[in-house]
Backbone:
């Protein structure tokens, strides 16, 4: 009887060891893990449509190896006050699509208090970029229309302080530096809006890039790589971090092959 009990105990221990070993051999689950949050891949129409409502975050700072020269990039230390000002719609028509049957995407603009950014001025700059013929309008057969309330909007563009953007972008890691798109929300880092990054020499083109990049995610586009040294960078390249040999380019219609 004692021998049988010892035998059963040994068999039980062997089973436990095997179970632990098999479990350790499996790759860790990635769902919901902020360290593995990546861009939507592909470019098929079905994938683009699903991206419009997908909660999957896309951020310039979340991919492995994504770094910035922190001696040059501005970290202002700004902390917003948590209040929001929703901008009034820009007066007059701002978009004239070439195709009357284009899809209309309604958006709202809000700015966090304490950032030093005027909501109406930011909304005017955003509307100008989204209406530019070099942007997504003709390429995607879309029109962007600003609305007065968040309830009317299909997606929201939030300009906020770095800590607030970090919170809005979770589980993506924006590290106080970057912007993101998650589901119907585009979150723009106020430091980047006011100070750009060392990869751009002028603030205006950089703002156009950050708007087109994050709205491009909303339209279903994932991150891209530089095609060749000296070419205009794809808008969906993480240009804030590294141009990979390309030259800065804020406009999807000005990419090679368009």
Residues:
């Amino acid at each position: 009887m004692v021998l049988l009990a010892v035998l059963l105990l040994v068999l039980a221990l062997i089973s436990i060891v095997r179970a632990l070993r098999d479990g350790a051999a499996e790759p860790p689950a990635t769902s919901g893990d902020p360290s593995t949050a990546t861009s939507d891949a592909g470019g098929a129409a079905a994938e683009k449509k699903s991206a419009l409502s997908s909660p999957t975050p896309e951020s310039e700072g979340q991919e492995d190896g994504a770094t910035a020269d922190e001696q040059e990039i501005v970290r202002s230390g700004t902390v917003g006050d948590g209040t929001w000002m929703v901008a009034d719609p820009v007066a007059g028509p701002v978009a004239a699509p070439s195709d009357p049957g284009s899809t209309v995407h309604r958006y709202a603009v809000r700015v966090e208090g304490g950032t030093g950014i005027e909501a109406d001025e930011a909304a005017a700059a955003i509307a100008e970029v989204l209406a530019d013929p070099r942007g997504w309008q003709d390429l995607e057969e879309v029109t962007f229309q600003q609305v007065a309330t968040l309830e009317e909007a299909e997606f929201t563009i939030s300009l906020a302080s770095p800590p607030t953007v970090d919170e809005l972008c979770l589980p993506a890691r924006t590290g106080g530096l970057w912007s993101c798109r998650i589901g119907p929300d585009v979150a723009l880092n106020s430091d980047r809006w006011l100070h750009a990054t060392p990869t751009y020499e002028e603030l205006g083109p950089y703002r156009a890039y950050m708007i087109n990049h994050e709205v491009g995610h909303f339209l279903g586009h994932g991150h891209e790589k530089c095609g060749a040294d000296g070419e205009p960078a794809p808008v969906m390249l993480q240009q804030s971090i590294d141009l990979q040999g390309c030259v800065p380019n804020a406009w999807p219609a000005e990419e090679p092959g368009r």
User: Anything to note?
Assistant: Residues 16-54 have pLDDT under 50 and may be disordered.
